[in-house]
Amino acid sequence: MLKKIIRISIFIAAVIFFNCTKRNFKQLHPDPEVSVVKNCDTTSAISYSGQVAKILNDNCNNCHNSTGTPPDLTNYNGVAASAQMGLVSCIVWDGNTSNMPKSASKMSVCDITVISKWVSQGVLNN
What is the rounded CA–CA span in Å between residue 40 and residue 116? Predict the structure, then answer.
């Protein structure tokens, strides 16, 4: 009887081990941030007016506007100045500056990637 229990236990352990591979785990539990990046177009030049302004409007402009907490992120000049002063550090939450947005969840990986690439492409007013 003990041998039968051991054999069944070994069989169950083998089935579990061989069916729960890393590949299967990733299929069952995809990383949501990776899937967002896959749907994020950052292959061409990033546009301030077409992409960056909308992201900032959705995530920052409730507080960072002309009558709110500085810096004003509602216009190109304010955003460009902030980009030179650590905007990317704030949104990636790297610990070097205050995490933004405050009292909210971190921006999506796509939004962070778009803004980071826009800054690395020269903060163009396009």
Answer: 13
pTM: 0.68
Confidence at 63, pLDDT banded by 50, 70, 90: very high
> CA-to-CA distance for 120 and 89, rounded, in angstroms?
13
Residue ranges of domains in the chain = 2-30, 43-120
What pLDDT, on a 0 to 100 scale, did the predictor assign at position 110? 94
Burial class (CB in 10 A: 0-12, 13-18, 19+), 97: middle
